[in-house]
Amino acid sequence: MKKIITLKLIIGIMILVSSCSEESLDLKPLDAISEVDVFNDVNLLQAYVDAGYASIPNNFSGNQRMGTDPLADLAYLKNNRGEGVPEYGQNTVDALNVETITKNAWTRNYFGIRHVNSYFSGTENSSISQNDLDPLTGQMLFLRAYFHFDLMSYYGGIPIITKRFKINEENFDVPRNSIEEVVDFIVSELDKAIPLLDENAPKARASKAAAMALKGRVLLYAASPLLNPSVDMSKWTAAAAANKAVMDLASYPMTEDYRSIFLSRPSIADEVIFTREYNLEVNQGTWSGANTMYWPNGYQGWHSVSPNQKFIDLFEMTNGETPYLPDGVTVNPASGYDPQNPYVNRDPRLSDIALYNGVMFKDRDVQYWIEYEDDGDGNPSDRTEVAGGLDTHLSPIYSWEPSLTNYAFRKFTDPTELPALSGAPTEEFTPDIKFRKTEFYLNYAETQIALGNEQAAREAINAVRARASVNMPPVTASGNDLIEAYRRERAIELSLEGHRFFDIRRWKIAGEVMGKPMYGIDVEKLSTGDIVYSYGTKIAEATELRTWDDRLYWLPIPDREVKASNNALEQNPGY
């Protein structure tokens, strides 16, 4: 049976099959597609598999938070946006509001798992040939592994679900599996998926490389201090092998031009392994998308998520020195850094990732400066403003959406398009990248540091820094300095890609970096036209009640799920 599969039909299939009882297998409605049809027609089954990808988290569409980075320490979300950030930052997380913080991770992932389990139940006696079934089965194994990993990343040990529950099930009281059991299950799923998956699948679909990449990330997490308190070195060895395998994939070379990785035109970058793609039919949404949420108000953006000064200070000078000494206050005398000329001779990725005062963007320079009644030292306290640049609260354009840090993000935005305005659909096609090659150089470097192979770690880090558009001096540090250099490199390179929130937790350093005030920069334009920068002004909204508690290393299981399980689900400590 040949059918044209539309988006509505795919959604219909997903809802129909996920909600059917076992008795419906014997029925074939005259006015709908039956479960029998779906699991015995390769075209319909392909549509069913495609629908499973909808449960993968979407960092762009309809989400002002734009992923998990604002939950961590380097990006600021305007507090009036909410999005679970105040609850996490102020340690008011509980079992009732947790799904706001995780973006419905428990519900979304278990819905996806149920969809996958329905596939395996429905295809047990399918008439579709094994050759046609194998790549579909491989994708479903990948998705089931992905959903369990996403859950584990938030909650730790979670129930492993591999069967489709029936409506008349005696009970749904399924306890949690241990973290070790969840990791073993995920790896087993991926090991079964890899030989079934295509090597050249579209980047928005699971491929052999995508399954290998997920395995590498899972094993890295499993070896990390939060999940590996006994410091079992065999876990680091396993993580090293898995990440080296991805690092060595010739089909996904690192892209030399950093900025182009996060654009989709003329095509998705070679190094991207797995991503959400957007097009005219499936775009980043209305009143949504990277351009709207990241850009300065002078470009009709909302500044919803902005870099803070701590993030900007991570970027080294082009001579490889950090701007500040480890105290974060004293200028590094070897760096050549000038706080009154702060963006000169910095790591080239700074202008690829962030927008700051004076940088050229689109058709003009970004303007975060304010003029005052009298010239001063840049500090705005108790002074009368008389004028402001196009990207401030004194701008005639979107004056109500200024940046509170006086920075904006450029990464993942498309300068050839406008933000989504007046509720009109956007045409922002920048991909929501889940796995890309460079991550696995850094993952491998982390495993080598843990295993004591510092030279191998430096070589992997330096391969990332040596790309043509970056061209930063090689890292030569060792010991704790190497760990810090690695973590700085990872924070910069993988910014906004969904890593920082999970990294600081799995490293168990959140107590050191969270619960502290956030800072921006103040920019004054003098009557002479000169610019003066002032540091040390706290972002008031972000500093109120900011705190940290070690219970936040794991998030609470939603209260309704604990109750529905008749308390078979043991709640995480502290909740």
TrEMBL record:
Keyword Membrane: yes
RagB/SusD domain segment(s): 271-575
Main location: membrane
Protein origin, superkingdom: Bacteria
Domain SusD-like N-terminal: 94-220
PROSITE patterns for the chain: PROKAR_LIPOPROTEIN (PS51257)
KW Transmembrane helix (keyword) present: no
SUPFAM superfamilies: TPR-like
InterPro entries from the UniProt entry: SusD-like_N, SusD_RagB_dom, TPR-like_helical_dom_sf
Keywords, ordered alphabetically: Cell outer membrane, Membrane, Signal
Subcellular location, record wording: Cell outer membrane
Family statement drawn from the similarity comment of this UniProt entry: Belongs to the SusD family.
Protein's UniProt name: RagB/SusD family nutrient uptake outer membrane protein
